């Protein structure tokens, strides 16, 4: 009986151990199937110099994500200027499958490939999320003789080469094209425009230094300098006046009789072949971010409009927008 009792205890113990091991495997599998989270700092690339729309968006997103503890890892912003964005895109293209890298993007992801300056397009990257809608602004120095967009248009109609326009994007890209589209709608001969490309991000410095007459930029940078009294905003490309401190003072093209508007959407793409679970993680983080009070305060400060899109929605949007931009480039004769 004693032997039988001992054997029963041994068998019972083995059963417990076996069951425990089985439970451990199940728990391990469950844990491995859990939500993906970043295991190291995330590199957020702004494919331009400091101060522009990409840089401002990247740094604002990074700040809110970190301070609101939406993402536990650091989001380090890295500037990769050059080629209208193509230098940054090439850098990202070399990180296929990297779940800890992303970059901010906007219409130049269409313009630059279409004008022949890059072989990479939005289709070479992974859509993560759409975030905001922004607008272009056309600004002059506070002492400029131009007080309205129509003053500028009149000068351009008399002599398109008499006015120099600077932008931080390359010729045929966004800062150039948003201005071309606006003055074309006003009847200016756009083929003779004098456009200066300041891809090192020095556009505002050139304007304030008297080296150029007009700066075609984004609303955020224009707002900052207008608030400081250094520039006059002749027009913005929004469909109607915006609400918010300072930006509400900026006139639209339409209210000055120029029938044009231009939406500068911004979102984030990652390298090709990102893990779908990583994409889902970031997608959720962006959605959470735009609901925070801190984000809303920063958004209103820059005059942005929330334009959240999931990864799938953003991908579909990009495909549709590409077709529209392609048509515009063909019409103006800048598609290569």
Task: Itemize the secondary structure elements and their pairings.
Blueprint lengths: L1 H31 L9 E5 L6 H15 L7 E5 L6 H8 L7 E5 L2 H7 L11 E16 L7 H10 L5 E4 L6 H12 L8 E4 L5 H6 L5 E5 H9 L3 E6 L26 E8 L5 H14 L3 H10 L2 E5 L1 H22 L4
Verbal overview:
- With 336 residues, this protein is α/β, with parallel strands linked by helices.
- The chain has 2 domains: 161 residues, Bordetella uptake gene, domain 1 (D-Maltodextrin-Binding Protein, domain 2), CATH 3.40.190; 129 residues, 3-Layer(aba) Sandwich (D-Maltodextrin-Binding Protein, domain 2), CATH 3.40.190.10.
- It is 43% helix and 19% strand.
- Strands 1, 2, 3, 4, 5, 6, 7, 8, 9 and 10 form a 10-stranded mixed β-sheet that branches.
- The longest helix has 31 residues.
- The N terminus is likely disordered.
Question: What structural class do you assign from the helix and strand content?
Answer: alpha/beta
Q: State the name of the first-level CATH class of the largest domain.
A: Alpha Beta
Morphology call = globular
SSE string, helix = H, strand = E? HEHEHEHEHEHEHEHEEHHEH
Largest sheet, if any?
Answer: 10 strands, mixed
Binned strand content = 15-25%
**Tally of discrete structural domains:** 2
SS summary, helix count: 11
Question: Helical content, roughly?
Answer: 40-55%
Distance between the amino and carboxyl termini: 93 Å
In angstroms, what is the radius of gyration?
A: 26 Å
The residue ranges in which pLDDT falls below 50 over 5 or more consecutive positions are 1-32
CATH architecture of the largest domain: 3-Layer(aba) Sandwich
Q: Tell me, rounded to a whole number, the average pLDDT.
A: 88
Number of strands: 10
> What is the third-level CATH name, the topology of the largest domain?
D-Maltodextrin-Binding Protein, domain 2
The CATH homologous superfamily of the largest domain is named Bordetella uptake gene, domain 1
